Structure formats: structure tokens, C-alpha cells
Amino acid sequence: MGYGGSHEMNKRHAIGKSLEKRTAKKSKGKVTIGSGNIWFDKEDCKNEDWLFQCKATDKDKYTLKLLDIDKLIKNSKKTERNWAFVVEFNSGNVQERTCYIGTSYEILDEELAELFEYRDTVIENAVKTNGKQITLSKDEMDEKWLKDEWIDYVFEKQNLVLCFLNETDFYKLLIDPEEKIYGCLT
Fold this sequence. Notes:
With 186 residues, the chain is α+β, with helices and mostly antiparallel strands. It has a single domain (3-179), classed as Trna Endonuclease, Chain: A, domain 1. The chain contains 6 helices and 10 strands. It has an 8-stranded mixed β-sheet, with helices on both faces. The longest helix has 24 residues, at 3-26. The radius of gyration is 16 Å and the shape is globular. 27% of the residues are buried.
């Protein structure tokens, strides 16, 4: 591999490490040693209540695999924590960075029961898939969020409903709920 390929790998690694550090800081937690590659300490970041897997890309799309979600769910159950999958779309301009955090509908419903009065509509309007992955598109997610809509995906065979919040709302709603300031649900 030439310099160009190595440079790209280093850039992606730096973007990922930066996201892990920010996630740990914003969640009032810590980065997991070795990005969770040690058998007894899995995933990228954690705090007392949450376990996070962090993925950053410099592309406009990210393919979220059910296999990765299953692994995160398994590790969260072992540690008795809620789980969240962090996906960040990067660009050369830090101000254009967009981050969404997904977790299961059940976790959100438990944490935010009073905000989920439209339970059936969330699942009804979700993008359903029988597949093993979903392609998350930055533009589609941004557009939905600007329209004050939840971003939902359903893995029908697994009976798993994923809901994505933008980064700011996730932390204000679930990590710092006393703030009670959020974008999508005002």
C-alpha cells in the first residue's frame, strides 16, 4: 500500500478516535481501552448507564450492519447498560459534521415514555427491512430531523426498532434530562 492509502487509513483512524473521545466526554464516561478489543472490556465508550459503539465516516452514507448491533446489544446485556450506536458523518469543515445516535425504541420508550404518545405511528412510519443491514444517508437523516420527525428503522425478523436522534438531543434527553431543552420534540 502506497502513501496515499496509508494516509487515508490514518485519517479515518483519527476521525474515529476523535468521535470516541467526544462521545466519552459528552456522556460523562470514558473511552474503552483499545476501542473494546480486550475480551473483558468491549465497545468504544461507556458511562455508568450506557455502552457506545462509535463509527465515523467521511462519506455521505454509512452501512449499519445488524451483526454490529447484535454484538453491541449482547455486550450491553453483559454489563447491564443501555446501548447506543453513534454514527458521525464528517467533512473537511468541522461545522458541517453531523452526528446521529441510535438505540432501540424500547430503551427510548422506557426513558422518555411521556414523549412517545404516538407509539404506533413511530413503528408504522419506520423504514422496514428484513435484511441484515441498513444504509444510513446523511442527507435523508438531516432532512427528516429538520422536519421534526423521528428517524426509525425496523428489522422485522428480529423485532428490533431502531430510533436515531441527533447528537445534541440524545445527550440532552438521555444523559442530561434535567436540561429539558431539545430540538426535535419542542
